[in-house]
Amino acid sequence: MAQTDLQRFCDELRAKISIVDVVASKVKLVRKGREYQACCPFHNEKTPSFTVNEAKGFYHCFGCGAHGDIIKFEMEANGLTFMEAIEKLAHKVGLQVPRMTHESHEQAEKRNTAYEIMEMAAKYFEKQLKLTGGAQARDYLARRGFGEETIAKFRLGYAPANNGLKALLASKNVSEPEMAELGLIAVPEDKNRRSHDFFRDRVMIPIMDKRGRVIAFGGRIMGDGQPKYLNSPETPVFNKRRVLYNMNYARDAGYEAKALIICEGYMDVIAMDKFGIGYAVAPLGTAFTEDQIQEAWKVVPEPICCFDGDSAGVRAAIRSIDRVLPILKAGYSLQYAFLPDKLDPDEFLKARGREEFLKVIHETMPLRDLLWKKNVDGQPSATPEQKALIEKNIKEEVSKIADATVRNYYAQDMQNRIYYELGRGAWRKQSGFGREEYRPRRGQKTAETRPAVSALSPVRTNLDDLSAQYVVSALLCYPELLEEYEEKLLNFDIKNETLRQIFDEAAEIIHEAEIVPESDALREKLVEKGLEKPMRGLLEFKMMRKQNPDIIKMRQSLDERIAEEQLKQLEAEIKDCLKTIETSESFPEEVFSRYESLKKEKEALLNAQDAG
Question: In whole angstroms, how far apart are CA 82 and each of 24, 26, 87, 110?
Answer without folding.
Answer: 20, 18, 9, 22
